[in-house]
Fold these 4 entries.
Entry 1:
Amino acid sequence: MSTPFRHTEPLPPGSAAGTVAEVYAQIALDFGIAEPSTFVVLSSAPELLAPAWALLRESLIAGPGGRTGKELVALGVSLANRCPFCVDAHTVLLHATGDHALAERVARGETPQDEEHARLLAWGKRTRVPGADLEPFPFPREHAPAYLGTALTFHFINRIASALLTENLLPAGAQRFRAVRSIAGRALSRTVRRTAGPGQSLALLDDIDPGEAPAWALGTPVGIAYASLLRAAMRGAGLLDAADHDLVEAVLQDWDGTHPPLALDGFPDRRERPGARLALLAALAPYRITDQDVAAWRRPEHTDHCLVHLVAYGAFIAVDRIESALSAQITQEVV
């Protein structure tokens, strides 16, 4: 039987208990998809699963602003990150909003005809570049927590999906067919159009006060979810020694949003520094992680919990690089 998972074997969702089961129940209710693989793959680390879901829910689903606009931002992010799994997912979700012509237009790689839609898609793509000029926002300023939160959510989820899932959203790649995309979207339409109350995911978090929330979140639940995911993801740094940690942080500090060359020039050799290599690949080119990369790092003590944490750490340092540049821009405006 084929599986959507790469490098890891999460427990069957039917055996979930505690926080994991609670997260799955809320995902089914508010996202409309029971046990989506993008979250199941995080389930061996519930302390990551809950805040990742919370950030998605509070921004994309419960945050202010139209769902179509936020799906276009998420799609733009996924295109910029070269994550076919997530590109297909957001195409289906655009069908779920009822705008079938828009969904198929972007599926063909064409620019949306509506000027506002085109600006949202292009804005999402630009967010991959740390420090890119993202203003004026293509949405009302008061909707910024939801739109910025959505973009940062999928900079994280794209990397998790590219690293730990196959490219097929549906079995045998059925999402390649227009009729399947449309039918799948229609099945989700009622949930996508339902209003979800903000803040309901926060009870799932280990720590309701995870630290200072970013200024752009404007005191909304999006900020708490982001801070919680930041804290959880950064725990993965403990899987690296000090030298590898410093290397990863230094490379990300200079990252300009570009994708690495085919030769992966400058990446550590897997035989010498496998942990640093995995973390950097997760940050900059998760679709380039191979079985050999994971095998070189794996030790008997390295469980799936460890692998998910290391990949999440690499993914989030890229997110943090993007978010830090964004926060600096907003701070300068306020000053």
Entry 2:
Amino acid sequence: MTDTVKLVSLAVATPDTIIHQSEAADTAGRLFSDRFRDFKHLARVFDSAGIRKRHAARPLSWFEQPHGWQDRMEAYAEVASQLFKETVTKALERAHLKAEDVDCIVTVSSTGFATPSLEARLAREMGFRSDIERVPVFGLGCAAGVAGLAIASRMAKSRPGAAVLFVSIELCSLAFRLDELTRPNIIATALFGDGAAACILRTGKEGLAEIESTGEHLFPDTLGIMGWKIDDTGFGIILEQSLPPFAEANIKPAVAGILERAGLDISDIDRFICHPGGTKVLQALETAFSLEPGSLDIEREVVADYGNMSSPTVLFVLERAILAGLPSRSAMVAMGPGFTASCITLKRVA
């Protein structure tokens, strides 16, 4: 059907700076071992996280100095702009479109902000039209790769033929805190990286996949599982140890409810494409969906190469899943602050 929304193109990018996990472990030990009593125990996460390397907006030496909001947001505006231009340029080229062809931009990010927003700052340089619609979204966290793509797909569905650009950019590393002597902050130094992705969506016959259905589930009384604590210095991470067991117990019924509203069942899904929050979360998801251990192999590959980049990570997984060949129906799943689960079903384009 020509009126269905298609994912026309997808592009990903990372900052140039590469931090190997062994370097991150050594640096964290130098910065925290004398000041945090339980550091030696927590340091095991650098080995158990399944991460080889990550990309960062700044070199390791930058993180050894204290930084406030101005430093952090200046770095965000600079590097996020670079990643925006790189991913959008590639996505447009792959869709055989120009910037002036774009009718709407949905941009998600929860690790920094700029006002005017990124797409407005870059509009003239990129060549966007003056009548373009802009939808900048903040606060969806790790779920935004799926939730934002869902928003973009609904924009495309409501305007047949319009080209909708979806951009996901996260610079998680800029939230690193020297002053936060907490378990979540230490663990974050072992898990999070930086990256971006851009997609073009449009109704029509051609595309990489069809966006079949979208949905979300907001869990009650779960505000403390994941999010930001905001103070004078910057963002401070909130990350509960209960996240993996919570996901294992609750994600399947939540996704089943989302699928049911679309007239589908868990058994209709041939492949889950999940946001890889970490090794323990992936194990929890495999158990929850009754998958064989190790089934989420692409997710583990992405984590090993990039760490958890928050919202764009699931799009890195999607890119590799597309290259490997999508099955008849896939489900993209991500969880984020709220606490929320977001789901999109994709159908293979014949």
Entry 3:
Amino acid sequence: MRPGRSRATLRLMQIAAILAASLAVAVPSQSPPAQVSVTFADGRIVSRKATGEADRTTGRHARADDPVRIASISKLAVALGVMRLVDQDRLDLDRDVSAYLGWPLRNPAFPGAPISLRQLMSHTAGVRDGADYALALDDDLATWLAKPGAWDDAHPPGGYFSYANLDLPIVAAVMEGATGERFDRLMARLVFTPLGIDACFNWTTCSDRAVAKAVTLYQSTGAVARDDLHGKRPACPGTPARDGSCDVSTYRLARNGAFFSPQGGMRIAMTDLARLGAVLGGGLPGFLSPASLATMTAPQWRFDGSNGDTEQGFFCSYGLGVMILALPGRPATCRDDPFGDGRRRIGHAGEAYGLRSGLWVDPTTRKGIAFFVTAVPDNAPKGMRSVFTAAEEAMIAAQLPREQ
């Protein structure tokens, strides 16, 4: 060790080198990608860090309170909404969801097996993304699910895990069927407004102030990928109808589910995402019942060596809309600990449009981190500790000295 340099200093230098290497091919040096992280403990923000540009056109710098399309962490927020409805006795996790939808939901290969919310939210229902999950405004979910590739014909519902984005439009449709409310508005009423956060799905219920602060997502080539808004809401909050029109009043409750992108379309700032993390860690009592929180964050599925597709060890345990990292006793093939310390954490990862994101909470200490990094290449190098990217590991590791 060189004189005058502590272990923490050297560690931070190594982290910086890893992150720089992983993003070296991302964007021109004069336009550094946005990177934001917030740490929290017991419901309060401990630190925040933001670098890079939220909008290269204007040169606006990223801030911790700028909303970004957070990708699959959206699934965790939807699960919070579902569990609020469970607490209100408006949804039952184990009931046949056909009763809420108003039309039969079945895997054609297993027509006698009912499908439940518990299965959909734990990715054990047998739904697959082979039919895609981007429905147009005038698409019908029941018809969509009859397409080839929408179902696993080898495993009955309830046991085999395979991560599928299409699960979430079905969940959104179930929520609409149970309440008679449109998904985006329902999420605002159930989750965002009670927590006092300015978040939304596909920009519909966010404030004008939030829209003005949107983080533009860029591909690793530098091309705009998403949300180049310049202060204006998108002309259509989802995929337009097949004739190009976007009359949202024609959206049919419990018949589409995908239009507002429940699988990945949440826009939220890291300061607000930390508040969702505080709920998950039990730092904001009263939002969910203790029973619902415990159910949501407990393993509904865990890999036993053959009962699921782990995607190279990325998924090894899953709750209800919640990834569980480093669960004790998991097989050696699991590489799901980007922290590298063997501690169980709960939360979710996100990946889309050049963004990598994470919300992770230690349920014992109630300490957590919410972060995103943009312009990450699709073939970004993996980290040294896990199957997560080096960019994600570096964002996490940069905060660890503050937690020790």
Entry 4:
Amino acid sequence: MTTVLAIETSCDETAVAIVNNRQVCGSIIASQIPVHQQYGGVVPEVASRAHLETINDAIAQAMDQAQLGWDKIDGIAATCAPGLVGALLVGLTAAKTLAILHNKPFLGVHHLEGHIYATYLSEPTLDPPFLSLLVSGGHTSLIYVKECGRYESLGETRDDAAGEAFDKVARLLKLGYPGGPVIDKLAQTGNPQAFALPEGKVSLPGGGYHPYDGSFSGLKTAVLRLVQQLEKDGDPLPIEDISASFQATVAKALTKRAIACALDYGLDTIAVGGGVAANSGLRQHLQAAATANNLRVLFPPLKFCTDNAAMIACAAADHLSRGHISPLTLGVESRLSLSQVMKLYQ
């Protein structure tokens, strides 16, 4: 049974967690959303400074919550890529310091691998192979999970990530930041069929469309033109109907590609991760389609959909149990493909 303390500071959450294999012993998440709301998005320098101010208290609170001493911790981990470089450095430096101080193995963890492992926290029987649908503010991908550290990207968005599209549409509708939760709430009372919006197909050179890749920039532009036309006509904006139509379009597009990909590759389980995994529209559409196709779809608990350290600790515990350890010379990277995960370990 491997117990790991992990730190996650890739963007705008300062998170620390302690996980024993797939059991969460303690989890602290200090969100910076109130700090960044005034700017309408995450400001990297502001995020880094906020991590510095919060990290020590978060570590102390996680240790207190877990009621464990350092002698019970088998390894120290931190997200090292991808993410905001300054923000990542705060967590990585803290983790390395703890590893040296307490003479523990150190592990650098890929942020997206963490999102894959988020579902493991509530599904003790989940094991590869399966299909992972990662949908967040920075990433939208279909990943073939073969085993710990072995991943193959089968599809992705060619431009905006799903969460990014939610934020941009929310800005168009003057709903504030972050856009996902508020659009989801408004969509509950709107008509998802009020407006026909494009799902963002990606054309292939020889004709037809890519079965798994998608695009959200055209959808975002379609909402912009819709808003401009309604304002030009002097009509009040039906915010609820626009939100419902937009959300349903995103959910349908993601569902179609995920189901097709799982069936084509003979995978009977789809595990969803990332902040957009909390979206009620996506959960409803994907669950219904999976049931109709005799597939199993798994969502993490809502608290583990957005960035958190428990998912990082869970991934690190699996790597550590296999003898994977990172060198203390490991740095941070703003971009790193999931296919390169094993380069983080000796």
